[in-house]
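We read letters as residues; the integers encode the fold. Take this protein.
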Amino acid sequence: MRIRDMALAALTAMIWGFAFVTYWFGLESFSAAQLTAMRFIFACLPVLVIPRPKLPWWLIVLIGLVLFAGQFLFLMMAYANDMPAGLGSVTQQMQAVFTVTLAAIFLHERPRLREIAGMAFAFAGLALIGFSVGGDLKPVALGLAVCASASWAVGNLLVKRTRGTSAFALMAWCSLVVPLPMLLVS
């Protein structure tokens, strides 16, 4: 891997991690549902210039509700219940384990031994990080964060049904689904 690529990977990880810290600040002024709505009000702006993917509306709505509304509402609720920002970002990586497991169950995609070993190693790392957090972690916060990760995984399986569709257009149009239900929830 070139140094430029490693630097871009490190920058991506820093931006990813920093985003989780900013949620704490947002929750000082907004509810979990309001913060989720605001996030996607900005994320859906490209629909003003990007054509809708040639997918049925029901699939766009379902992906938006599961992949975005569900994931981020659960995550914001975890933070509202005092989930540490660092652990919140790490718990979301469980989506990889959930995605592969759900794909094996529902899509009959069998992971190779190497992939299973990698997931087991990653899951052990997540568990180690989780157990190193002080005793002040509320089980409800952890449960909500795991629900967010599971929602992301289910969304990943739904996105598999959209092969050949522009990922950017799909994400923008699925983002359009989120604000109204979140404002109703709030």
In short: The longest helix spans residues 3-26. The chain has nine helices and no strands.
